[in-house]
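Methods — Computational structure assignment.
A single polypeptide chain was analysed. Its primary sequence is given first, followed by the predicted tertiary structure written as structure tokens.
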Amino acid sequence: MIESILEFLKLNYSHFLIEEEQRNSNIPHVFLKPEGIVPVLEALKTHEKYSLSYLNDLTAVDWLGKRKIRFEVLYLLRSPKNKHSQIQIRVPIDEGDSVPSIVSVFKGANWPEREVYDLFGIPFINHPNLERIVLPDNFVGYPLRKDYPLEGPGQDYLIQDLLQIHIQDDISKED
């Protein structure tokens, strides 16, 4: 099945494909340019034969110091129609780059994209509500990046803000 998908992508979307060395993985994968993620996922989802209609996972990897391009955004697609065959789409990006949101293709990508933004700092273009989802709004940094300090930046600022929020809540309850 993967050979057929690769042939389909080379025939129709070769301008989005990136030639990368194959990684040692038990999941078949392809590398795409960021601008190709939406049209390629749409095509794989709606293709009659492949029907990769289930977004199983969306995450990122920080390759700091290990690869030339720092980040990869990973999309794991499955086809419930075809014995749950799967393919992983990898989108390499550098620090400061962004990736188009796939919420228009997979509604379930909303929260995983927000999580990747929150923990890695990778922005998604045209996301309907790109804001932190796990950490407080005033959290400094992105804790899943390899260059994030092991002890954290110090959370005194968080405690101070939380105390201020609770004091304001108490005052508003008294009114």
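Note: The domain at 2-134 is CATH 3.30.460.80 (Beta Polymerase; domain 2).
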